[in-house]
Predict the 3D structure of the following.
Amino acid sequence: AQSVTQPDIHITVSEGASLELRCNYSYGATPYLFWYVQSPGQGLQLLLKYFSGDTLVQGIKGFEAEFKRSQSSFNLRKPSVHWSDAAEYFCAVGAGEYGNKLVFGAGTILRVKS
Amino acid sequence: EPEVTQTPSHQVTQMGQEVILRCVPISNHLYFYWYRQILGQKVEFLVSFYNNEISEKSEIFDDQFSVERPDGSNFTLKIRSTKLEDSAMYFCASSDSVERGVWYTDTQYFGPGTRLTVL
């Protein structure tokens, strides 16, 4: 069965520092991969997605992610974190018969210290 | 920018009562979904809906749950007899129709959620 692992439950970075959030997936074929962000009391906002093609994808708010098939990973990165980036980040893979059942990781809570 | 909306934002109910959670998907989308997130746990898929019928459902989505598109804009999730363990945040999502090989759906856009509290 498809699964997503986010090994870090909490991460704290200083404002202005770089960020990398890890995501590993288990899926038999070429996965469709997503990163969503959830601020407190808010819904899930799409940051970026990978369907095919260039393995380095750019998203909103200065985020990017790199798909590495050999490592079954889709890590999220940002070169310089802002205090407003503090939120919970979810990695997800499209699964099911038509790829429209999202399987989510447990999430990583990002704290930004000034 | 179009967005998915959900009402109410918070629903409190007594165990055994019926609840209906409402969603207005993005207007030109054809695929609709419900997910839930129990506090401290992962976001879980419940059901997907296309062309007025369920296309896929999880084992969580038992006979106590039903979905409906009663008109051209709303998409509802009904829980017939709520249990304490149904307390969760329920998210509605919608996506467009895009053919990608054997897959037909595009990115899912989520609403802000309805927090259901069962007492």
